[in-house]
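Feature request, filed as a ticket because there's no other form

It would be nice if the structure record came with a short human-readable summary line next to the tokens. Right now we just get the raw output. Example of a typical job, pasted below so the devs can see what we mean:
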Amino acid sequence: MQISDSNSKQRKMKRVSKQGKMGGASKKRRMKGVFSPINSLPPECISHIISLTSPRDACMFSLTSTGFRSVADSDDTWLHFLPSDIDSILSRAVDPVVFSSKKDLFVKLCEQPVLIDEGKLSFELDISSGKKSYMISARALDIACDTEPRNYLRWISLPDSRFVDVVEKTAMCFLNVVGKIDSEVLSRETRYAAYLVYKVKETSNDLVPPQYPIILCTSVTINRHRTTKEFACNDEIPQEWWEAEIGEFYIENGEEGEIKLMLAEICGAFYRTGLIIQGIDIRPKH
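Raw output as currently delivered:
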């Protein structure tokens, strides 16, 4: 009797265990249905939801499941992350941009700037937000010295520049650099910062900074609104590309007008000789 009772108890425990497992599986299926209603939505709705996030989030969605991947990587989704005027921008490219999908195009524009407008401007996208970035080449800048500019500026080519040529300062003189860009080509509701991109020639015979500080004056003008600042430049001699911030500005919805960016030396003769200017970089400020 004891043996029979023992066997009976074991059979009951097995039945309970099996029912528990089946119940657990059923519960998981029910929970999956409750907590994953997005799976029941049409692909176009899922695409719209993903497009309201960010490029980085869209990439994360594509890793969650095979079903999500097809929607998250689709052209309909990534078209929302590209600028609305992307076709017009690409039509101005010096070399054709070849891509296999909208996502591939987005990635390429984030990883490699595209030269446009006969190579006087470069265009790229910010990888985290998809906002537009531009660099104005030295050729498109208004660069003047305090003396005759033709005698103290010369054009050279460097392999690490994105543009065909850059400008070199060959004598001790004060520079005045002005760049202009239309606010309409920039992304709306975005705070931008502008930077002078420069380096010093390694073979310069005058690399030692002057004994007194190098003082630069910069300004940003949008229509009639102007902001200015003065600062002392770093005494280090950059032989790689460095940046000097000119200023920052915010692009409102419906913002129209020309943006004028200026950097002028007021003391110290900016690195005296051997200064090389690649351009002015304008990009979203995080």
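Something like this underneath would help us a lot:
The two ends are 79 Å apart (CA to CA).
The chain is about 30% helix and 30% strand.
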